[in-house]
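Exercise (ungraded).
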Amino acid sequence: MEARQMNSKVEVKPLSPVTKTRSFTRFLRRWSLQIALSLVGILIWAFFLWRSPITFKSYAIYNSLMLTTPFFALVAIPLTLVIIVKEMDLSFTSVMAWGVAAYSITFRVTQNVWLGFLACLLAGLLAGLLNGLIVVRLGVPSLVATIGTQFLWRGVVLVVTNGQGVGMSEVKRTILYPLLVGKIGPIPMPFIWTIVFGLIAWFFLNHHKFGAHVYLTGDNVESARLMGVNTGRTKILTFALVGLMAAFSGFVVSEQLLFFWPTLGDGYLLNTLASVFLGGTSVFGGTGTIYGTVVAAFIIALINPGIVASGWLAYWTQLIYGFIIVASVALQAVLRRRFS
Amino acid sequence: MDHLLQLKNVSKTFGEVAALHHVNFEVGSNEIVGLLGDNGAGKSTMVKIMTGYHRPDLGGEVYWKGEKVEHLSVSLARDLGIEVVYQERALADQQSLWRNIFMGRELSNRWGLLDIGGMTRETQKLMNTAMGFTSSAVSPESSVGTFSGGERQGVAITRALYFEAELIILDEPTMGLSLSETKKCLEFIDGIKAAGKSCIFIDHNIFHVYPVVDRIVVLDRGTIAGMYMKNELSMDELLERLYRVARTGNLEEYSKAA
């Protein structure tokens, strides 16, 4: 009360020209990471445009980028939250397949695509919750726990599908098909969903209590607990979101192909993680942005076709992804030492 | 009259280590209690029970204004009006000043949407008044990791004050502070008394504790080893008794206060 009473006497001075220029440099400093990342993206794009103008001046390459980048960007968005709370999730590649397996079983029984779709999302959510509970309630390090559940869900999928792929042409008869993999004008729907979910995640991360608690939990879990933040619930929720979005993304991929492969999700681990780390989310927790992750996802996606179109072997892609992860994590460690 | 906060028969065991044995402790309203004790005496454990961070072992009870509190949690304690300035400050270094001030008690509407403008404005005001920041390089958006020890302490104390706590617990607030910062901190405790609030002041340094408190409680190896009203004994007598407790661990006769 004392402090509040004192407050009422204080007048806030209007901004002087000096503080205006200061606030501009402050703006630059605050958004430096995002600005730098955007510049890197433009530079890489310009480089490929110069190396291979025919490919990069055609609509086809952008259509394909907008269609396929969301397959992992949709997971990279909630994974960003998991990394911000200083945890890790490696199980989403299998959860993608587990979600669609749940769809497939439900559809076989009910012959209802919508029920199957709901089952898919629910299966993903439950798989994510399980990760969260194992990590938070049992105290298993998330790296180990989610390697375990990665194998677990892949195993479940292989057992229930008997290792066989399943056709999904039935989804073409429902509105779900144009809604998830159709197009609005020249823009493929998966791209639009990525932007939509990116905006939702950005909003909750920056303008909702949940997001505030995500940052606090990752920054200093002990402080957050001492000040009454429910850090356990916050962590569990971030894991659940990854599960949910992994299943959604798995459904979008399978719908695109109209076929469900039990190996679905394999090969997405590297580019999803690379998107999060290149996007500036710190492996040490407490910092990270959705904007960074989404932009980084498109940079990552640009590299593979760029390399091929430039006439190099596609083998380079993996090397570059690996390099990006190591370099961005190393850079975070160096910056952290310098500024703390 | 009821006590503001009362612990009855509180014990706390971590695995095989008993941190507190059957402790009875109370704080009156508008009372400043100094809690003294060596490292490992159980001071921090007692604080964390009063703030709902630890649950007392079975049989221990916590009362707030005469009413028994079941399932005390950190957020419930803060809702009741208990704020703590922790030894380790409980700050999130990479986060902005305003996020630290409102940590765990963010201003938000009923859907949980943050009132960022409101929190930034309040923080700006607190910076000018309570925290005494004058440098224009510091803004509510500055991360607290860049602050000095005294400034960080200022943030933690301001945070405790802001939420209109009735009981403020200071866990070794002078640790790592410069001489002038320590003086400011002690003046702050006088301010709590003047404002009609209560305070538990935990410190190693009896020379800091003695001048500002009404009553002194000595904790030793998990039990209350002594309790003195300040007017009962001089600082020298107190010092002498503290040495004796430290040497022998002997329970002295329980001099009932209030």
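Further reading is listed at the end of the chapter. For now, observe: Residues 17 and 99 of chain A are 56 Å apart (CA to CA). Confidence is low (pLDDT under 50) at residues 1-18 of chain A.
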